[in-house]
Amino acid sequence: MSVLVTLDVWRVRRRAVPRALARMALDRRRLRAAPGVRFAKLLGTGTGTSFGPADADLTRYAALAVWAEPNKGLDDTPVGRGWARIATAHARIVLRPLASRGRWAGVEPFESTADPAEGPVLALTRARLRPRKAVTFWRAIPPIATAVAGAPGLLTRFGIGEAPIGWQGTITVWRNDADLVEFAYRHPEHRAAILRTPAEGWYAEELFARFAVLDVVGDRRVVGW
């Protein structure tokens, strides 16, 4: 059973973008091979406004890791040290899984528990778009993104993505679980998108997970919080 999930986020200068892209290519296997890691993904990020190609933020990158043991982190790994050399700022969000539905790369990486959350919660959505459905999906996103930006209780949001384009998702952090549930299941725009998803068949694979935020270490401005 996983006992800890970490989300590391780095900001780099524009002149360091080529080095960051090289790290994205080279560090995927290194991240998965880090001692104690059960599941890991190296991610690009975006503003979370459209989730199309123009949404990418080439100066911010992230690593999501599920650890088999507590008190783990990337700082003392080759991946963590490599990103530290090129980053101008870094933040780590420490998470406890609460609920998860769906698969990521064919596996269920997060456990589901009945434990309540006290304080902020993080929601992660991730999907692999069907190529022929991508344009329709991107056209449907702007109203939902606008609704999220103005939702009560939202602390921060940004997009996440893997290569190739179409393997993407969102990170949102909420003041508490009630605010997340209120938006996810009662806001008209978001509820309409949920109901539309099965009919449209946008996703070849999808996952939704919810976490309690245990700690935020480093520069919160990296995640817009």
Brief characterization of the structure:
This is Monooxygenase. The chain is of the alpha+beta class and 225 residues long. Helix 1 runs antiparallel to helix 2 and helix 4 (177-186) packs across helix 5.
Question: What's the layout of helices and strands?
Answer:
Layout: E1 4-12, H1 17-32, E2 37-46, E3 56-67, H2 78-86, E4 87-102, E5 121-129, H3 134-149, E6 154-162, E7 167-174, H4 177-186, H5 188-200, E8 203-218
Rg over CA atoms, rounded to whole Å, is: 17 Å
Question: According to CATH, what is the topology?
Answer: Alpha-Beta Plaits
Strand sequence of the main sheet, in spatial order?
Answer: 1-3-2-6-7-5-8-4
Helix content range:
25-40%
Order of helices and strands: EHEEHEEHEEHHE
Number of DSSP helical runs? 5
CATH C-level category? Alpha Beta
Can you name the CATH architecture?
2-Layer Sandwich
SS elements, strand count: 8
Main sheet properties: 8 strands, antiparallel, barrel
Number of domains: 1
Residue windows where pLDDT falls under 50 for at least 5 positions: none
What separation lies between the terminal Cα atoms?
29 Å
Mean pLDDT: 84
Shape label: globular
Strand content: 35-45%
